[in-house]
Structures are given as structure tokens and as C-alpha cells.
Fold Trk system potassium uptake protein TrkA.
Amino acid sequence: MRVAIAGAGAVGRSIAGELLENGHEVLLIDKAPTAISVERVPQAEWLLADACEITSLDEAALQRCHVVIAATGDDKVNLVVSLLAKTEYGVPRVVARVNNPKNEWLFTEAWGVDVAVSTPRLMSALVEEAVSVGDLVRLLRFSHGDANLVELTLPPESAMAGTRVGDIAWPQDTSLVTIIRGSRVLTPGPEETLEAGDELLFVAAQAREEQLEDLLSVRREDTAED
């Protein structure tokens, strides 16, 4: 997979290193000569250019990229790069860094962003995920389709503890992606039984999050007659 990263600072270089280790082709783009540190990521391609300029993106052959990552420290630049990548070059996947959480509302499909990554929000979510049981925690927002990656740790009092995945009437527009049980990562087949303490990862429409949390968090009172 070919990936172009706009912004060759510490964040961009770190992302490039991870992608290269996983066998991908990476192009780093930055307009600041001081940011061009080929010796730090020698396996990557480097381009000294302004990623907000069409001529620069033509030189980068952005149309050949499967993913573009807008990783600069300037939200305005990241939005422009995202919009150009999607509308002018038809890049299938655009990921954008959000530096200021106040600007997060702008990083949507309208600006060409498929996934917006806000470091402050992600850090807050990871803290919540580590200490919360029974509460739905939003880990990542997917701009395309208004869906989120969410996590919930199944509490002992949940009515769904001991229930098979295939027997649960999940809310519409939600998909159970993974069950993390201790050190194991389980594929949630219909025969798999949920256990208290399971970390459940879902992709869910935002409008269904409250319904999903209600389903998993609260043990329903037994209304049967004695």
C-alpha cells in the first residue's frame, strides 16, 4: 500500500516508521527544509514541497496513493490537504490529525476526511476505557457514515453476561468487531458467549450508542410472576 504523509515532524516521521515496518511504501511531504531529515527515516521517499499546492501534489503522484495522512501541526493545512486528496485525486482513504479539539467539528466528509484523529480526545478516551466498566467509551470517530469505534467493558450485573452473541438482538447499525478477554482477542462468532469483564469493541452509528449502552450495561429486572 502506498501512503503519503503531509507533515514530516515528529508525528509524521513516527507514523512513517510504523508503516514502513509493516511493509508499506511511504512518501513524506513537508515545505520546511529543516523538516527534511532523510537520515531519520531513510526507507521513505521525501518531497520538499507545499502539500496545499496542486503542483506539489501532482509531483507527489497523489493519485497513486491508497491513503493520505494529513499530519501537520496546523489544522487549516490538514483540512486543505484532506479536501484536495479526496476531491482532486480520489484518494480512497484520508486520515487527518486534529490539533485543536475546538476544530474537530470541521473534520468531516465535507472536507474529504474519512477518519479524524484528535490526540486530546483519544487520550481522554483511553483513560476512560481503562477505568470504566459498563460505560460506553468512544475511541475513534469515522467521518464517513457518521460511525464511531466504541468500547464497553461488560459489567457482572449485565443481562448479556452468559449470553451467546448470536442470541442477542443488537441495535440496528451496530457491529460487534472484537471481544478482548484477558490476553486473548476473540472473533465474535454467533456461538461465542459473552462473559463479565469482556472488553467489547463495536463500530456503531452515533444515534445507536445510547441504545447499545442500555442493552449491555443494565441487568433487566425479572418481571415474571412467582
User: Anything to note?
Assistant: The mean pLDDT is 87.
